[in-house]
Amino acid sequence: MTLCVCLLMMGVSAAGEGSVPGDLDGDMIVSAGELEAAKGSLERGDLTDEELDLIKRIHEEYPRTVVDFSGKEVTIYRPVERVVCTASQHIESLRSLRVPTKTIVGIPEGANMEAYFAEFASVPSIGHFYEADVEKILELQPDLIIAHPGPGPGGNSLEELLGRMRGSGVPVISLNCNIPETYPDEMRALGKIFEREEEAEEFIRFYEGVLQGIAARTGSIPDEGRPKVYTEWKPSNTNSILDMGAVEMAGGVHIFAGGRPVREVDSEAVMVSDPDVIIRLVWDRDYDAIASDDISSFTDATSEILGRPELAGVKAVKEGRVYAMASPFWTYLPGSSCRHFMGVAYMAKWFYPDLFEDLDPQAIHQRYLTQFQGLDYDLEERGAFVYPPPA
């Protein structure tokens, strides 16, 4: 019995080192017999009520297994009290699930400097997601690492980095958390891991309600009735593979859809395609930090497009349907976030102002910030994201 007590206590004291409180035989699971042993230890004064409650919780609720973005099964054997996030959208997703701020002990470089994540200003940085410092991560003694699956800049694979993380002995779950097609499943996985299943379903109802509400109205519109859209993230540079999904969800057709990923674009190709709408993505500022009427970046971007002589005959330019959108509303840009569905809502409003006369993207955004992000953030005063705003 003395040996059992010692092992039980080791499980409690070394919980941050990969052991499971109450596990006596090293299988990472608290059996019914091990729970009874813990109760006996409580009676002898060798455990506290709080320690027994944790052991009972682990017995009843763990292990928990989910499948990540890469298709790998990830098993968690005890409550996650310390997590490292390698991408800012991981932080945002956990905030939507109301995971306590103190649980996040490591964040990607730059996130602690963004106004949107002000409460994490003192949390250590672990480097960029595509070159995270594994040694720094391990120094933080996480119970879980949420890793971005890649690719990094230029399409570089993160397999080597992910392999080093997985070889550390710390559970690793690989998630994007900013791709519309997979985001609900990723939120369910996080909800299960963090015992926030109800919060996950509440958020998914809101998220899918926005996107499905848009799809319900645009679904019957034939391709020939949909606006042709050109997007660019800097002059004459686009990425059709990453951009066309959001454009299509809003009811448009990307002019470079179906081809290879396009980086630099020949202006003549845009002229020949004659888009109905042009959207310039801007990402040079902290758009959550600026005043709501600070639109200089947007007007500069749209004016530059409207002033290109080679585009003067393009329908979007002639009709003034040239818009600018900030990176937090997109899926893959510096400063991108989980708010991509707000970008879809704004595009739907731009594409079909009559069809979506009753759609209020700013109200959707405000609800998201208040209800799911828990932020005291008034969009009437702070934050600039689109230009010109839909009528």
Automatic annotation (TrEMBL):
Span of domain Fe/B12 periplasmic-binding: 82-355
PANTHER family, alphabetized: MOLYBDATE-BINDING PROTEIN MOLA, VITAMIN B12-BINDING PROTEIN
Coiled-coil region: none
Organism superkingdom: Archaea
InterPro entries linked: ABC_Transporter_SBP, ABC_transptr_periplasmic_BD
Name this polypeptide is given: ABC transporter substrate-binding protein
Entry-linked SUPFAM superfamilies: Helical backbone' metal receptor
